[in-house]
From TrEMBL:
<dbReference type="GO" id="GO:0005975">
    <property type="term" value="P:carbohydrate metabolic process"/>
</dbReference>
<dbReference type="InterPro" id="IPR002909">
    <property type="entry name" value="IPT_dom"/>
</dbReference>
<dbReference type="InterPro" id="IPR013783">
    <property type="entry name" value="Ig-like_fold"/>
</dbReference>
<dbReference type="InterPro" id="IPR035986">
    <property type="entry name" value="PKD_dom_sf"/>
</dbReference>
<feature type="region of interest" description="Disordered">
    <location>
        <begin position="564"/>
        <end position="585"/>
    </location>
</feature>
<feature type="compositionally biased region" description="Low complexity">
    <location>
        <begin position="564"/>
        <end position="579"/>
    </location>
</feature>
<feature type="domain" description="IPT/TIG">
    <location>
        <begin position="18"/>
        <end position="98"/>
    </location>
</feature>
<dbReference type="Pfam" id="PF01833">
    <property type="entry name" value="TIG"/>
</dbReference>
<dbReference type="Pfam" id="PF16640">
    <property type="entry name" value="Big_3_5"/>
</dbReference>
<dbReference type="InterPro" id="IPR031148">
    <property type="entry name" value="Plexin"/>
</dbReference>
<protein>
    <recommendedName>
        <fullName>IPT/TIG domain-containing protein</fullName>
    </recommendedName>
</protein>
<dbReference type="InterPro" id="IPR032109">
    <property type="entry name" value="Big_3_5"/>
</dbReference>
<dbReference type="InterPro" id="IPR014756">
    <property type="entry name" value="Ig_E-set"/>
</dbReference>
<feature type="domain" description="IPT/TIG">
    <location>
        <begin position="183"/>
        <end position="265"/>
    </location>
</feature>
<feature type="domain" description="IPT/TIG">
    <location>
        <begin position="100"/>
        <end position="181"/>
    </location>
</feature>
<dbReference type="GO" id="GO:0017154">
    <property type="term" value="F:semaphorin receptor activity"/>
</dbReference>
Length: 585
């Protein structure tokens, strides 16, 4: 028969100590029942019932006189396990009912595909957990308490979400999702620069970004960040020191760092000045751009400054040295004055771009005009070339255009000629000589870029030389025959014009000279030589000059021959008588 426990908790029978390993194995199980339990004792061969507390076992089987296998019914708490045989009922041990484990949280809820990260499971009834399942992979937990487990996530083949659940003595828990994340990558950062004060919204593109848990700029976490997809994160930069900073993105799949991906830049200020201001057309103007960091930023900006002079010419880029960039520019006209000048600092690794503006006043440049003539002096009628040269008075510069008006000082109409390459020229022939030089004036009339100016000169005009030629008709002649003596007076080149005045003829025969007026440069007179005694006679025509032409003489010779004679004889009376006196004439 079965007897109660003896000293030491060992089941004893009538024959004394039977089995020192008696008891219930395992002595705990699910409150829902179904736990296979082995009972060890003695005298079990004729067992008729097994009870867990007041409830019979769901099933049992006697294996031998010392062993029964039973299936626990549903129950709760700690209950005695008893075996009933024809000889009576004896308590074999106790069985403790355990409730199903339940999960409330998986922290973190994601991790790398390679596993290895520690995951905390929270819930209830976790103290008897045996395994933790990550989909098809399993891990052995470390029990911290009935409400907490720690487990190292096992590796899986690829990214994705798997169910996590616990198998324990109390049963199988509910399932919570756990995501295996691929390692992140960052392929784009825009913008890649921003102020040191932070606050820049930066878009990060790449892959594996949807579960982002952290974004850092250098050593500092982003002010805020959010993943909008697996390929895009928007982060706001924290304040940082000037210079490049690494960007680190952390996800459950790991971390990726992009070296020097974001360039913190301090704000800058650019001030542009010019000298001289105002300036003249063509005068070089020095533009200076001073670039400074906005206090309290330390350091000196470097890089380049691009100058726009506001006159449509090409921009000029100059290097910044010790915070200053300098260029020189000459304006070709005042049409846009005051010109809007812009100096744009293009930034560097530490400073943001900035722009400074100024205005530049440009005035028309003064000029001087000089006039020269050639030849000087000149004879009457000769063409004289007058050249007016227009020059810009320094510091102005450039090539004037427009016109020059010439006044020759002789009362003739003025002449206006265009300026080409800074000069204008004209020819003029003076019709009259003058005791005093003619005053010549060349007036530059100015243009949009240059002021008017006047130059003066004098031109001396002298009498032109003349040549007198003598013509005789007929030549030879005979005594008593009228001869036409012609004098032609012409200006000797380069003189020109038509002489006026008188010509005095000397016929070379001792007769009185004859003076005749010139008409259109010529005159003619008749002279009759009385005899041949002086033949050939030297004939001289002397031009007596006028206000514009000098006197001159021309000579010729006139041959005078004897005149032909005819003798006629007459008689009276005719007829006459013999002896009558006849007069012959």
């Amino acid at each position: 028969m079965l007897t109660p426990y003896g000293p030491g908790g060992l089941l004893v029978g009538s024959s004394g100590l039977l089995n020192q390993f008696s008891g219930v194995f395992p002595n705990q199980g699910s409150a829902g029942g179904g736990t296979l339990v082995t009972l060890i004792g003695s005298h079990f061969s004729n067992a008729t019932a097994v009870h867990f507390g007041s409830r019979p076992a769901a099933a049992f089987a006697v294996l031998d006189d010392q062993t029964i296998v039973a299936v626990s019914p549903a129950g709760s708490g700690a209950v005695p396990v008893t075996v009933t045989t024809p000889g009576g009922t004896a308590r074999i041990g106790s069985f403790y009912y355990l409730y199903w484990p339940a999960l409330s949280a998986v922290i973190p809820a994601a991790g790398p595909v390679g596993g290895g990260n520690v995951v905390e499971l929270r819930g209830i009834n976790l103290s008897t957990a045996l395994l933790v399942h990550f989909g098809d992979a399993v891990a052995f937990p470390v029990v911290l308490s009935d409400a907490r487990l720690l487990v190292t996530a096992p590796p899986v083949a690829g990214p994705g979400t798997v169910p996590v659940y616990v198998t324990g003595i109390g049963g199988v828990s509910n399932r919570l999702p756990y995501t295996y994340a691929a390692a992140p990558s960052v392929t784009g950062v825009s913008p890649a620069t921003g102020p040191i004060a932070g606050g820049s919204t930066v878009v990060l593109t790449g892959t594996g970004l949807s579960l982002v848990t952290g974004v850092r700029f250098g050593a500092l976490p982003a002010t805020s960040f959010r993943a909008y997809s697996d390929t895009l994160i928007v982060a706001v930069t924290p304040a940082g020191a000037p210079g490049p900073a690494d960007i680190t993105v952390t996800t459950p799949g790991g971390s990726v760092t992009v070296p020097a991906a974001f360039d913190y830049k301090a704000p800058s200020a650019t001030v542009v000045t010019s000298t001289p201001d105002p300036a003249l057309v063509g005068q070089p103007v020095t533009f200076t751009a001073a670039v400074t960091g906005v206090p309290p930023t330390p350091g000196t900006p470097s890089g380049t400054v691009t100058f726009d002079f506001g006159d449509g010419t090409a921009v000029v880029t100059a290097a910044v040295t010790d915070g200053t960039a300098t260029v020189s520019h000459a304006y070709t006209g005042p049409s846009g004055t005051p010109y809007a000048v812009t100096a744009t600092y293009n930034g560097d690794t530490d400073f943001t771009p900035s722009t400074g503006t100024d205005t530049q006043v440009v005035e028309a440049a003064p000029t001087t005009t000089t006039v020269t003539s050639a030849p000087d002096p000149s004879p009457v009628g000769r063409s004289v070339t007058f050249v007016a040269r227009v020059a810009v008075v320094p510091p102005g510069a450039g090539v004037p255009t427009g016109t020059v008006t010439f006044d020759f000082g002789d009362g003739t109409p003025q002449m206006t000629l265009p300026v080409s390459s800074g000069a204008a020229s004209v020819t003029h022939a003076y019709p009259n000589a003058a005791a005093d030089p003619y005053p010549v004036t060349a007036t530059y009339n100015g243009d949009a870029n240059f002021t008017a100016s006047t130059g003066t000169d004098t031109q001396t005009v002298q009498q032109a030389a003349t040549a007198t030629t003598v013509g005789l008709d007929p030549d030879p002649s005979v005594a008593g025959q009228p001869v036409a003596v012609t004098a032609t007076v012409a200006a000797v080149p380069p003189g020109a014009g038509t002489p006026t005045g008188t010509v005095t003829f000397d016929f070379g025969d001792g007769t009185a000279p004859v003076t005749a007026p010139l008409t259109d440069g010529g005159t003619v007179t008749l002279h009759t030589y009385a005899g041949t005694a002086g033949s050939p006679y030297p004939v001289t025509a002397t031009y007596n000059g006028d206000a514009n032409f000098t006197g001159s003489s021309g000579t010729a010779v006139q041959t005078v021959g004897q005149s032909s004679s005819a003798t006629t004889v007459t008689s009276t009376p005719d007829p006459s008588t013999v002896g009558q006196q006849v007069t012959f004439t």
